[in-house]
Amino acid sequence: MPAMVYILTTILCVFFPVWAQAKPESEAETIGKCLQALQSPDSDIRRAAALVIGKYDTPEAQAALLRCLHDQDAGIRQSALVSLTEESRALSVEVSLAILRLLSDEDVHIRRISSSLLDNVAMGQGTGLRFVVVDGRIVRQASSSAIDEKVLGTALNQALADADSSVRRNILLNARYFPGVLQSESLLPFLSNASPEIVVLALQALASAQPDTSGLWPEIQPLLQHPQTAVRLELLNYLSQLAEDGLQGLEILADDQSPAVRLGALRQLANTGSDNFFKKLQQALLDESLPAELRLPLLNSLRNYGDAGRPVFQAVLTSKSPSLRAAAMRHLSQQPAGMLPMSIFLGGIRDSQREVRSYASIALQRQQKALSESQIRELLHNPYPEIRSLALRLAGKRSLALEFANEALLDEDIEVRKSALQIIAAQRSDAWLEILMLSLEDENPDIRDYAATLLQTQTRNPQVAQALQKYLPLCQNEALRMRLQQLLNPAVNTPRNVPRSTIIPRRQ
Q1: Backbone phi, then psi, for 370, in 5-degree steps?
Q2: Backbone torsions φ then ψ of 130, nearest 5 degrees
Q3: pLDDT of residue 402 exceeding 50
Q4: Which of 23, 232, 266, 359 would bridge 333 by S-S if both were Cys, CB 3.0 to 4.6 A apart?
Q5: Domains in the chain, number
Q6: Is the pTM of this model over 0.85?
């Protein structure tokens, strides 16, 4: 028996002294005595019994607790409510209905508890608040055991008028779990509340309330000048969901004193693609005094203006913000080949932001044939190693590729040198074996290992085999060392008792 049950049982012993002398009883016996005690006219006895039986998860105990929710004693009702809900997040239909009924309980503490449990009600299988996708839209679908929506709506809308502010706040906090249930007229009084938090919650609830928004403009309009930025930001979210009905308010907010509100409204307006907002959008994107994180979402809205927006994307490439430059280059790199001058991408590979260089590199690779030899040669002297590696990949002609590779052998970056070795091995220049064998003595272990990897297919060449034998003690790659040993000493791997002439030679 858990310690808490033991303590509560001791309390019961005050009212039932005979229990003190009894032997330890079974769970069924304890529940039975509690059920009997719950019939007592003494509220103290019923309260103690309710505390004990609430610790048992049996059908009999649960049914008794449901009956306790109707007890005339507020303490018993509260104890039963807590016991029924403390172990489970998803509640049964019966418990959910009881919670809704207790929203109008005469005891304010019970109303506060029950109003704080509405998210549990929404998670229950019996509320019918299941959401499915129909024709690309998320809609609510009632289940066979759903709580009647009228019962749900009556309880929640009445609770919005509760005398206690905590109860009202809890209803607003959980409104999103019950879309279409709350009535707009029940929410409108909260829009003039002195607390900015309550106004914000009311707007959020209004967004999920009954869909008819006609006639709400007079109630919404004063919030456009609300002194709290948080309220105007939430109003922005609300108006954005109203489609054309919200445009009037969004145009006012597009001149708001707060950059977050102003640019948020401008983004929604620009999403319409109307030419009326293009100039403001362009000015905002190029205004370096505005925070970059607020301007960044505007680039997505700029896409709505097609060819007209392309020069603005190019202008953003000069922004002080790396994130803005990267987003602009990403968009420009996706344009059809030949649409933009190559100078845009050749400039992008010199940007200090790696992401910008990456998108510019993608565009250059897509338009490789349009690059001149001098432009590719310029890449080989770029200060960033990944761009120098790009130059090696873009050098299509064998002679140019070998020229670049031989120059890159002295590069300070290891990856560039490895790319050069790969090209030399693939192109099979006159001195390619000598270059790779010399690289086996390089001071950098990565270069030595890479050269050895490229020479694996040449172990039948006596000079290569001798160079690799000399390299083996320097090899730091265990798997590569074992592979080279197998290639250089095939006799070691010859099966015993099998004539060597019957072994199929290893393909090199």
Answers
A1: -85, -5
A2: -95, 140
A3: yes
A4: 359
A5: 1
A6: no
